[in-house]
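Lab channel / #folding
Pinned by the channel admin:
"Please post every new chain as: sequence first, then the structure tokens as a reply. Keep commentary short and put observations after the output so the thread stays searchable."

First post following the new format, from NK:
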Amino acid sequence: MENSEKLANSKEVIAYIAERFPKCFILEGEAKPLKIGIFQDLSERLSDDPKVSKTQLRAGLRQYTSSWRYLHGVKPGASRVDLDGNPCGELEEEHIEHAKATLEESKAKVAARRKEQAKKVREEAKAKKTARAATPPKRRPQPAAAKKVEQPVETRALNADEITVGNNVSVNMGKGNMPATIVEINKDDVRIRLSNGLQMVVKAENLRS
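Reply from TO:
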């Protein structure tokens, strides 16, 4: 069963009538000028065709005859053709001039549109370039400075004669040596005063020079 679904757009209509009437309508190359009143002939020949309506035929013909390849074909010496490709008279001068003017106007519109699009592209590119120039570049994170490794302070155990009141010494506090002053001596215990004023009792063996 033949597919009778209606054609969707003018492009499909043109392809369909070119298939039905190949001696009149073509899809590629320079088109032939059409017989005056070709719409009426098409309407009659396709009146029982469920795939295409008169409205679609009219829109399809309008698109076909306004194409550049059709307007190129409307020139001196060309003959109009009917649906079966039979000649239907020479073109009149006014029709040739009208086709020429329409073609030039159409090409001018396309050229102007392309020029406007190119201008828009340039302006957008310029705007992006300006925006990039106004935006300061992101600073790359600087590598963290290597922590300075403190060299351990060389110390030595105190001699017996160095354990005297008022002598400045260092005391081993576990994490390191802290400066201190001897304030009192009791046998093996020694009272010292740290640089922050705090006093404490430590073993003499924990004192260093």
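NK: The longest helix spans residues 93-134.
TO: also worth noting, The mean pLDDT is 84.
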